[in-house]
C-alpha cells in the first residue's frame, strides 16, 4: 500500500475514534446531569464503553497509546461541553418544577432495575446468599443517606464533601445502573455544583476569566474527586466482580432501588420568613427581598398534591422508566452490548 494511502487510512480510523468518542461523551455528559441515568449506559449505547475503560486502565498504569489518548480526549471534551451547556437548564428545571423533575427522576432510576437484575440472572446469582447480603448493604446505605441528608436543595458545601461528590458522580461511568447525579442530589450537592458549572459557562461566554477562576473552590475539589473516582471505582469494581461477583451485583441492585428513597416528589422550596435563621443569620424585613437570589438554598417542605399532580407524577415515572429501558435496550443491541456482560 502506498504511503499516502496508508496515511489516509490511519487518519480515517482516528477520525472514527474522535467521532464515536465525541458522540458517546456528549451522551455521557448529559446523562451525568440527570439523576436516574448512568453515564456508563450511554457509553455502552454508543458502543465505546469497553474501549473507554481499557483506555483509562492504560493511562492509569502509565501506558500511553495515541488511539487511547485520542478517545479519552474526545469523550472528555464532548462530555465537558454537554455539561457546561446543560447545567443551567437542569438547575432551573429542578428549582422551578421540582415535583415534575423528581417524578421523572424516580422513573429513570427504576428503569435501571431490569438491567441490573438481568446481570444477576446472567451470573446465576439469584439464589446466592451473598447477592442478598449485598442488596441489604446497598439499600441500607442509600436509606441512611436519604433520611439523614434528604434530597435537599443544598446540604452545605465544603471541599471534603465536594471531593466525595465528584467521586460519586464519576462512579456513574462504571457502576451499572447507578446514577452519579442522583448521588449528588442525596448528598445535597446537585444544585450547588450545577450552579457553579453554569457560572463558569456564563463567565467564559463573557470573557471574564477571573470570574471563571473564582469558582475554583467548587470546580477543583469536584474535578479531583472525579479523577479519583474514575481510577479507584473502575479498578475496585473490576476486582470485586472478579472476586465477589454475587455480592457486588446485589450491592448495585440495593444502591439502585434504595436511591428512590430520597426522591419524594411533592416537596418545594420555601422562602424563609422574617425571624427565621437563614445561612446563620436572622432574616429581617430589609434582607428578605434579597433572598430570591439564594433560592437554591431555601429549605424544602412537603406539600399536599392534587389528584392531577398525583396522576401526572405517576405518568412521568412511567415515562422515565421507558426512557431508561429504551437506552438500556439500545446498549444491548449494540455490538459492544452483546459481547459485554456485567457492564452498563
What's the number of structural domains? 2
Specify the oligomeric state.
single chain
Structural class estimated from helices and strands:
mainly alpha
**Helical amount among residues, as a percent range?**
over 70%
Low-confidence stretches: 3-10, 150-155, 339-344
Q: How many helix segments?
A: 16
> What does the radius of gyration come to?
21 Å
Major sheet attributes? 2 strands, antiparallel
> What's the overall geometry?
globular
Mean pLDDT: 77
Number of strands: 4
What string gives the helices and strands in order? HHHHHHHHHHHHHEEEHEHH
Approximately how much beta-strand content do the residues carry?
Answer: under 5%
- Note the gap between the termini: 40 Å
Strand line-up in the sheet with most strands: 1-4
Structure characterization notes:
- There is one protein chain.
- The chain has 16 helices and 4 strands.
- By secondary structure, the chain is mainly α.
- It folds into 2 domains: 10-88 and 99-266 and 304-338, no CATH class; 267-294, no CATH class.
- The protein has a two-stranded antiparallel ribbon.
- The longest helix is centred in the N-terminal third of the chain and has 31 residues, at 66-96.
- The two termini are 40 Å apart.
- Residues 3-10, 150-155 and 339-344 have low confidence and may be disordered.
Amino acid at each position: 500500500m502506498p504511503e499516502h494511502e496508508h496515511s489516509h487510512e490511519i487518519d480515517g480510523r482516528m477520525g472514527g475514534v474522535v467521532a464515536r468518542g465525541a458522540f458517546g461523551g456528549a451522551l455521557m455528559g448529559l446523562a451525568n446531569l440527570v439523576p436516574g441515568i448512568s453515564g456508563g449506559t450511554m457509553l455502552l449505547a454508543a458502543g465505546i464503553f469497553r474501549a473507554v475503560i481499557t483506555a483509562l486502565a492504560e493511562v492509569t498504569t502509565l501506558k500511553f497509546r495515541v488511539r487511547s489518548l485520542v478517545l479519552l480526549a474526545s469523550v472528555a471534551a464532548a462530555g465537558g461541553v454537554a455539561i457546561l451547556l446543560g447545567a443551567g437548564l437542569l438547575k432551573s428545571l429542578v428549582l422551578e418544577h421540582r415535583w415534575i423533575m423528581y417524578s421523572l427522576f424516580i422513573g429513570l432510576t427504576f428503569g435501571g432495575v431490569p438491567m441490573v437484575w438481568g446481570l444477576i440472572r446472567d451470573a446465576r446469582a439469584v439464589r446466592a446468599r451473598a447477592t442478598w447480603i449485598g442488596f441489604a448493604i446497598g439499600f441500607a446505605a442509600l436509606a441512611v443517606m436519604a433520611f439523614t441528608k434528604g434530597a435537599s436543595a443544598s446540604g452545605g458545601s465544603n471541599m471534603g464533601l465536594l471531593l466525595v461528590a465528584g467521586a460519586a458522580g464519576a462512579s456513574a461511568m462504571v457502576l451499572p445502573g447507578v446514577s452519579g447525579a442522583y448521588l449528588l442530589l442525596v448528598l445535597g450537592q446537585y444544585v450547588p455544583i450545577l450552579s457553579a458549572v453554569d457560572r463558569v459557562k456564563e463567565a467564559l461566554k463573557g470573557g471574564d476569566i477571573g470570574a471563571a477562576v473564582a469558582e475554583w473552590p467548587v470546580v477543583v475539589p469536584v474535578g479531583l474527586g472525579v479523577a479519583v473516582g474514575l481510577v479507584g471505582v473502575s479498578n475496585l469494581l473490576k476486582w470485586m466482580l472478579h472476586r465477589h461477583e454475587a455480592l457486588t451485583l446485589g450491592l448495585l441492585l440495593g444502591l439502585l432501588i434504595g436511591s428512590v428513597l430520597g426522591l419524594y416528589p411533592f416537596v418545594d422550596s420555601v422562602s424563609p420568613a422574617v425571624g427565621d435563621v437563614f445561612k446563620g443569620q436572622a432574616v429581617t424585613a430589609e434582607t428578605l427581598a434579597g433572598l430570591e437570589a439564594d433560592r437554591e438554598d431555601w429549605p424544602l417542605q412537603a406539600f399536599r398534591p392534587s389528584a392531577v399532580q398525583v396522576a401526572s407524577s405517576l405518568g412521568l415515572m412511567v415515562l422515565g422508566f421507558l426512557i431508561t429501558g429504551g437506552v438500556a435496550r439500545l446498549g444491548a443491541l449494540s455490538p459492544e452490548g452483546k459481547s459485554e456482560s456485567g457492564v452498563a
